[in-house]
Amino acid sequence: NSIRGGAKSKSKSASRATSTRSHQRKSVSVSDASAAAALILNSFASLAVSVSRAESWEDLASDTNPSFNRHNLALAVAGVGSALWVGFAPIVTKIPGSGTLPLLSHQNYAATPWIRAALIGAYGSGAALSMAVWARSLPDNIRANPFKWPGRIADGVSKSLLCLAPKDVDDPVQVKYALLTGTFLAFTGMGTLCNMPIAVIPSWTSRRLSRAFPLWMLLAAVNCFDLKEAAEHVTLGSEDKGQYGYLSSGVKGFGQLYLGARAGCVC
Questions:
Q1: DSSP string, the chain
Q2: pLDDT per residue over 54-74, tens digit each?
Q3: pLDDT (tens digit per residue) in 111-146
């Protein structure tokens, strides 16, 4: 009897520990999603400030306001990727070794299809809006020929990659944002290209958000790159809560929520 009682006690303890870990992982996933919301909302707020100050589309053109166009493109990529992740979440987050039927996954919207539809609609509409604004701000000869758009994007990405280093290495603000940009890009690559368990290092959320997290890392990298350029052009901090103020708030909010979630895991 004492042996059976001890076994039952150990079984209950293990069950409670498993339940606690499961609840903790769900809380971490929610915190990570909230961190992404800080980036997305502040990015849109930054774009809204740019639009409110522009007198015409010429002020938002890709040649005169590269930050505006870069952010629209990054939001479009993040929106499309997030919508696809929600749509294929049962496959992306499939539990290894669980077979094919029934499909066992860490994230599945079978019980809440309305949430799945709402998320896809929100991400998709945001991406469509950002892409439409990006296309409208292109030069007339480029906008009239969509086949030239990939080349335009490749040119912009190549130029940005070559400008990752700070212009003044003695300026701590430029160095800080340059390092953050490189780090976020590295995390983007790890979460996108690497296999488990390396793919979960940036998010530490196992398979729940590991493939969605790189999209937010990419958006964070674009935020930091724009802040680095603003520091180089001495326009950072010249306004109370303008375009760059929102970008800075987005990065800070993302970092605070993300690190808070990690601290919660340790505790």
A1: -HHHHHHHHHHHHHHHHHHHHHHHHHHHHHHHHHHHHHHHHHHHHHHHHHHHH-SSGGGG-TTT-HHHHHHHHHHHHHHHHHHHHHHTHHHHTBPTTS-SSS--BSS--SS-HHHHHHHHHHHHHHHHHHHHHHHHTS-HHHHT-GGGHHHHHHHHHHHHHHT-S-S-TT-HHHHHHHHHHHHHHHHHHHHHHPPTTGGGTTT--HHHHTTTHHHHHHHHHHHHHHHHHHHHTT-TTSSSSSHHHHHHHHHHHHHHHHHHHHHHHH-
A2: 777 777 776 667 788 888 899
A3: 778 888 998 998 899 899 999 988 888 888 888 888
Q: Which amino acid is at 141?
A: N
Structure tokens at 80: 């499309």
Cβ atoms of 209 and 203 within 8 Å: the answer is yes
Contact between 259 and 251 (Cβ < 8 Å): no
| Residue 112 φ/ψ region, left for φ over 0, alpha for ψ in the -120 to 50 degree band, beta for the rest | beta
With cut-offs at 50, 70 and 90, classify the pLDDT of residue 250.
confident
Which residues are CB-neighbours of 42 under 8 A, at least 6 positions away?
223, 246, 247, 249, 250, 253
| pTM, rounded to two decimals | 0.77
From the number of C-beta atoms within 10 Å of its C-beta (0-12, 13-18, 19+), residue 205 rates as: buried
Question: How many Cβ atoms sit within 10 Å of the Cβ of residue 161?
Answer: 10
Tokens of residue 203, six digits: 């998010």
How many Cα atoms occupy the beta-carbon half-sphere of 81 within 13 Å? Answer: 19
Res 98: pLDDT: 62
Of the candidate ranges 5-9, 118-122, 126-130, 254-258, the one whose mean pLDDT is the lowest: 5-9
